[in-house]
Structure formats: structure tokens, C-alpha cells
Amino acid sequence: MAIRNSASILVLGTSSLVGKTLVTLALCRWLSGQGKSVAPFKPMSMSSGHGSYRTASGGEIHVHQAHQAVAANLEPHVDMNPVMFKAVGNKLEIVVCGAPSPGLTEIPASHRYNSLRAVIAKSHRRLADRFDHIVIEGCGSPVELNIKERDMSNCWVAETFDARCLLVGSAEQTGVFASIIGTLSLLTESERSRVAGFIINKFHGDPSEFADGVRILEDKTGIPCMGVIPFLSGITVVGQEGEAASAPETILSGEGFMEELDRCADHIIKHLNLWLLEERFLAKLPSAQLSDPGPLSNPAIQ
């Protein structure tokens, strides 16, 4: 049962590394540029030792959500990434609302995931109370069947937050037909009904050359293509992990960073069917309130 009829778009991927992060960033940039109040949200992230960012309040989130926050003209906030699994040496650290929670690794897995789902729901509610639109980035694939009952990022999110889903597949390697059709076929009927469109990302060549491919995918899935996005090279910071990503004063405010952010967002938005995107994802969502939503308060870090 949905917690509320929130204005959420969930960006799903057929696998990791298909481009969910940059598609989410681009949608945040586009909606913000339209004068709409929008926030990014990554319920649960996985981070290497160099993939985190400290917010102004001292909380730790994944650097990708910091990039997405800047795209939405917002200050990064722990509610944008309430749960992060972080590799620390040979151990796994669970960061909850910006702070390590070592006790979570000591309790049974079922209790741990229930606790983390409650944290995620509270963060989403706080964002939903402040912003008209929330662009959610999923994690990995939504059809990892052996761990689906522990899902905190994909189908559970769509159902809990009543989100419409945008499925991203990558054409960088062969197999985009199998990945999109296969992913959709492994979803339940209820889950599939939430997928309102798909994107072909990282296409090498002229997107018009894939017109037959789009037609085949639309015919076989009954779901419209929102765009074929050409491969974008030369991305060094935005949506990347690295030691430099932990230096917000030199990365997030730097001229080169903003130029790269705009280049990424513009490239993706230019190749999306914005009319169809609005019709399928935004038509029934609340109208934008153009007033400043104000700063987010920081939840108590436990």
C-alpha cells in the first residue's frame, strides 16, 4: 500500500552501469530549469571508499546524489541518500542518515532490512513534503530474483511511493533487446504496469539508425521509447567516483564541474521525447509551486 500519492519518478536500470545516475541528474536539471521544485533521491547506494560526500551538516551521502542535488539547484542533504553501504577496507559499513550505524550489522538480516526500509520511507516523506517532484534513482537491476525480498531500491520503492518507472537500457554492448524485454518479462504484472517508458542509452552512432530497434521494442513490450541517447565521452567528474569527489569545495562549485554537469544534462535532455515524458510521467502529478520550498531540516543522525 502506498504511503502517499507522491510525485515520484523512479529511474530503473536493466543492470548497473547503464546510466541511471546521469539520467536522474538530467531530469532534475530539466525540471528545475522549468521552475519546478524537484529533489533527487537514492534510497540505498553502494559506495567504494572514494564515493562519498559530506554535506554541510556533516552527514555522509554518495557523491552521485550530491551531483544530482546541484543539478536541481539544491544543497546536498542526507535525506537524498538515507542509506549507503560503504566499503571500508575489507569490511562493509552501513551509513544511515549520514552517519555510520555499526549496530545494524549485528542484527538478523530480516530485521535490518525492515529497519532500513523505515528510514528510507521517512526520508522520502520529508522530501515529498517539501518538493513537488522527486526523481528517484534505483540500484542495479529490479529483477535480481534471489534477493528481491530484500529490495530497498527498485520495485519496493515504486510500490511504496506510488512511482512511475522509466527503464534505462544500455546499447554500449550488444544485448539491449534481451536486457529490456527480459527485465520487463521478469517483473510481475503489477510492477510492469508502473513502467511508463524506456530509454536506450549509450548508443554509438546516429540514433535514427536504431528506428527499427525502437519499433521492435515498442511492439514487443507495449511500452513507448522516451529516447535514444548517443554515447557521451569525456565525462571525468559528474556521476563518477574518485578521490577528488570527496572535496566538495573544489568539485561541486568549480566552473569546470558546472560546465560538465550542464553538458551531461543537455546531451540527455536533447535526445528525450519531452512531450511524451510529460504526458506519461508528469501529467497527473501536482502542479509546480514556484515558491521557494525553503531549506531542509536535518534529521537526527542515529
Automatic annotation (TrEMBL):
Gene3D superfamilies: P-loop containing nucleotide triphosphate hydrolases
Chain segments annotated as coiled-coil in the UniProt record: none
Keywords: Glutamine amidotransferase
InterPro entries: CobQ/CobB/MinD/ParA_Nub-bd_dom, P-loop_NTPase
GO biological process, one term: cobalamin biosynthetic process
Domain of life assignment: Bacteria
Protein name, entry field: CobQ/CobB/MinD/ParA nucleotide binding domain-containing protein
Species this chain originates from: Sorangium cellulosum
